[in-house]
Amino acid sequence: MLEKLKKLLSKKGDNFSTPAPVSVDDYLEEIEEIPLTPVEEEKVIIKVCSIEDEKDAVNAIVMAEAGYIVIAKTPNLEKEIDDEFIEIIRKMRNEVAKFGGMLLALGDEHLLITPRNVVIEKLIKEKKEESNVTKENIEIKEEKEENSE
pLDDT for 59-118, tens place per residue? Predict the structure, then answer.
């Protein structure tokens, strides 16, 4: 059985060889020391609140500036928003930009406010169908150019 495994795993009949013996001291030098107490990761705290007026907006900004990620429920940003609330959001955006944070809309009823040490990146996925169509168009153009020469 072991011989069959050796033949399956070997390249063109190469034989397995056992590694050279290693002294205990050399082996122990290679082992990394494991800490006795596990290192705890810093917990990320997300504050959840509701913004209905300017006072609530100021509280949310203060929490974000203090280093918390804030998710704030708002009136429906498409249906129930008025000029006063638009001005509150504009002020929030300016204040958050001053300390280097970000203000993002999450759907129609939530805002995300982040401190300066949080980075949000949007993933851009290319659809396979589009990429295949593009490749086919390039191949067709190359064939036409070759045929015309």
Answer: 999 999 999 999 999 888 778 778 888 888 889 999 999 999 999 988 888 999 999 998
Give me the half-sphere count of Cα atoms (radius 13 Å) on the Cβ side of residue 103. 18
Q: Report the chain's C-alpha Rg in angstroms.
A: 30
pLDDT in tens, 13-40: 555 566 677 777 776 666 666 555 665 6
Every domain of the chain and the residues it spans: 56-114
Q: How far is residue 113's CA from residue 118's CA, in Å, rounded to a whole number?
A: 10
pTM of the entire predicted model: 0.56
